[in-house]
């Protein structure tokens, strides 16, 4: 992992924090092209009631609409939390490149278990079980610790008013 990778992951954590401030689950993602330019970024928007509004899904759809297949394959997706199966599938179908995440789905599952949050309706799978050819790096322990704090704040701040499906 390089300095630029950490810089983009830091931005993902900031976006996750923005989501939390907006009353949403703390997840954020950044799409970076082959020359290191940030093309698109988003945070979780499932508080709208549409539980498919994960940032990685938004990135994949933006890439499909705005980048050539070659550009997509040369891009990197940075994300605060490892993709859920829906987002991993979108990533694979759209043909995006490397994924770098700050915290893993396994870590998230552990945190939600500690919090007593019911398991999501969609299975928690590593990205490579959904997209075997994906290049994936993560987690980054220091950032994962910060994200754990955001998830605890989200779930404890809201009591138990959290629908199942809390996943990135
Ligand atoms: Zn997702």
Tell me briefly what this model is.
With 168 residues, the chain is an alpha/beta fold.
Describe the model.
With 168 residues, the chain is an alpha/beta fold. The protein has seven helices and five strands. The protein has a single domain, classed as Cytidine Deaminase, domain 2 (3-Layer(aba) Sandwich), CATH 3.40.140.10. A five-stranded mixed β-sheet has the order 2-1-3-4-5, sandwiched between helices. The two termini are 22 Å apart. It binds zinc ion. The site of zinc ion (ZN) has 8 residues, from helix 2 and helix 4.
Secondary-structure map with pairings?
Blueprint: H1 3-21, E1 28-32, E2 38-43, H2 55-66, H3 69-73, E3 76-81, H4 85-94, E4 98-103, H5 105-115, H6 127-130, E5 136-137, H7 141-157
Parallel strand pairs: 3-4, 4-5
Antiparallel strand pairs: 1-2, 1-3
Helix pairs in contact: 1-7, 2-4, 5-7
The structure holds zinc ion (ZN).
Say which molecules are bound, naming each kind only once.
Answer: zinc ion
CATH superfamily: Cytidine Deaminase, domain 2
Q: Which percent bin holds the helix content?
A: 40-55%
The SSE order reads HEEHHEHEHHEH
- Counted up, domains total 1
Structural class, by secondary structure, is alpha/beta
Which CATH architecture is right? 3-Layer(aba) Sandwich
CATH names the topology as Cytidine Deaminase, domain 2
DSSP strand tally: 5
Strand line-up in the sheet with most strands: 2-1-3-4-5
Please tell me what the overall shape is: globular
Distance between the termini: 22 Å
Unreliable spans are: 159-166
**Main β-sheet description:** 5 strands, mixed
Strand content: 5-15%
Mean pLDDT: 93
Overall CATH class = Alpha Beta
Computed over alpha carbons, the radius of gyration is 15 Å
